[in-house]
């Protein structure tokens, strides 16, 4: 794809559209937009614009489409697959200015929000009304709802409540041509032709820019119980996961943490947690509802299921402070692991009964290639985040072996019936592995869809394919 550079004349047009104060061009201003949370990758855009209205986004896209300028849409920059990196320079359209909760419709249990609203801010506003918006990725305190839509985000509560896919009803989207559409209807059902709303979710900013989001809300459960179960082996912890569902329980969260991850959280954050010898892995299990007796009975059933997998110990959080501490440990695991060493993170997902085989295989691949891995994640969804750690490996070995090791991990994942990303997206860094999962015919269909939406290929080029 041949793109043009942004000329001074085009910068002037962008200033006319968005206002001079919303157009940024100096290296200092552009720095923040040259990276996201993906490793240490850096790509500078030529210009950043922070539009405030749908009409401005429309005019900017129309202009860039006419002049073949690459456009990278950007949320909060918390992505882990390089999806917001302007790899072809050009324009970054930052959605920071779209930070309003437009309406909360308590009659229909729906809300309309702009994409630059911070996920946790929205969750707190609806919680104050006794409602739940359960899509809470680890970065909920800083990520934007728009970025969550683009990446089909999940987080710990997907196991009971589903990904953001389950909550988005309708989207206002600006197409690369500048046309503005609503993708569907504000209804819980939709059997009216191809579902463009669902197509936009997870399209990683390659098909259009979302400017309004209508989401479903649900009544908020009043009670939770949280337990931390410890196991002598990874396989036993992973095996217990599907047994919990077979016992008739759908927990509201079911997270896996490897010992090394907990050690690094303790080192990074100084949290007070007594890590006993002989423990290899933990499951953090939450049950929610409105009836304490039912929750208690569910916990008993979970306990019985865990015992069959040689569970060493179960800690029941007995206060909201202790629940908060345990959740904090899980939520900062990614940050703690990554602050320890050069790393590469993968986001494997398999049908959950295959988790023991997945973790065993990942460790065997690591042993063969000579790298350590730290795994944690949303075990209830079969979703393991695999952090491959460089530690003392030489640069030469790291560069030589890493790609082959990742390829084997993904081949294993796919052979177990899984896929190469559960919730972090493909973006820039996983795209070379797409053929492991998809035959040419699938990739051709995806490219065809891209071509229909964006014939000039200006929107988030270099991502997914
Ligand atoms: C998590 O579950 O902690 C997130 O997906 C982030 C991460 O893996 O770093
Ligand atoms: Zn995650």
TrEMBL record:
Gene3D superfamilies on file: 3.30.465.10, 3.30.70.2190, 3.30.70.2740, Uridine Diphospho-n-acetylenolpyruvylglucosamine Reductase, domain 2, Vanillyl-alcohol Oxidase, Chain A, domain 4
PROSITE patterns: FAD_PCMH
Pfam families, per the entry: FAD-oxidase_C (PF02913), FAD_binding_4 (PF01565)
Protein name per UniProt: FAD linked oxidase domain protein
Domain FAD-binding PCMH-type, residue spans: 41-220
Entry keyword set: FAD, Flavoprotein, Oxidoreductase
Required cofactor(s): FAD
């Amino acid at each position: 794809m041949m793109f043009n550079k942004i000329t001074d004349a085009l910068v002037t047009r962008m200033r006319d559209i968005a206002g001079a104060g919303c157009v940024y061009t100096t290296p200092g201003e552009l720095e923040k937009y040259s990276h996201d949370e993906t490793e240490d990758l850096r790509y500078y855009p030529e210009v950043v614009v922070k539009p405030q209205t749908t009409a401005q986004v429309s005019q900017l896209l129309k202009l860039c489409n006419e002049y073949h300028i690459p456009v990278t849409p950007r949320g909060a920059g918390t992505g882990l697959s390089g999806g917001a990196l302007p790899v072809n320079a050009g324009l970054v359209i930052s959605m920071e200015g779209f930070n309003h909760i437009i309406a909360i419709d308590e009659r229909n249990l729906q809300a309309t929000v702009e994409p630059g609203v911070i996920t946790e801010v929205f969750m707190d506003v609806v919680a104050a009304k006794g409602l739940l918006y359960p899509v809470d990725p680890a970065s909920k305190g800083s990520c934007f709802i728009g970025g969550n839509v683009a990446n089909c985000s999940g987080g710990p509560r997907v196991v009971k409540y589903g990904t953001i896919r389950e909550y988005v009803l309708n989207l206002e989207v600006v197409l690369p041509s500048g046309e503005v559409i609503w993708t569907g209807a504000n209804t819980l059902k939709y059997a009216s032709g191809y579902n463009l709303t669902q197509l936009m979710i997870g399209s990683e900013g390659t098909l259009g820019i979302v400017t309004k989001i209508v989401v479903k809300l649900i009544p908020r459960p009043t009670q939770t119980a949280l337990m931390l179960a410890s196991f002598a082996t990874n396989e036993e912890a992973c095996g217990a996961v599907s047994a919990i569902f077979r016992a008739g329980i759908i927990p509201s969260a079911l997270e896996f943490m490897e010992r090394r991850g907990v050690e690094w959280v303790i080192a990074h954050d100084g949290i007070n947690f007594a890590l006993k010898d002989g423990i290899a892995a933990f499951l953090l299990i939450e049950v929610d509802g409105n009836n304490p007796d039912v929750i208690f009975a569910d916990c008993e059933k979970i306990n019985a299921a865990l015992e069959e997998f040689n569970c060493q110990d179960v800690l029941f959080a007995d206060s909201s402070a202790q629940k908060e501490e345990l959740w904090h440990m899980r939520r900062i695991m990614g940050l703690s692991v990554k602050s320890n060493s050069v790393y590469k993170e993968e986001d494997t997902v398999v049908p959950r009964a295959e988790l023991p085989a997945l973790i065993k295989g990942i460790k065997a691949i690591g042993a063969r290639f000579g790298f350590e891995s730290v795994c944690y994640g949303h075990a209830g969804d079969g979703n393991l985040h695999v952090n491959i750690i460089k530690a003392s490996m030489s640069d030469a070995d790291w560069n030589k072996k890493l790609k082959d090791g990742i390829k084997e991990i993904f081949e294993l994942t796919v052979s177990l019936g899984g896929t190469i990303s559960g919730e972090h997206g493909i973006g820039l860094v996983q795209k070379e592995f797409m053929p492991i999962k998809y035959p040419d015919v699938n990739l051709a269909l995806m490219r065809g869809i891209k071509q229909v939406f964006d014939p000039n290929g200006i929107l988030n080029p270099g991502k997914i394919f």
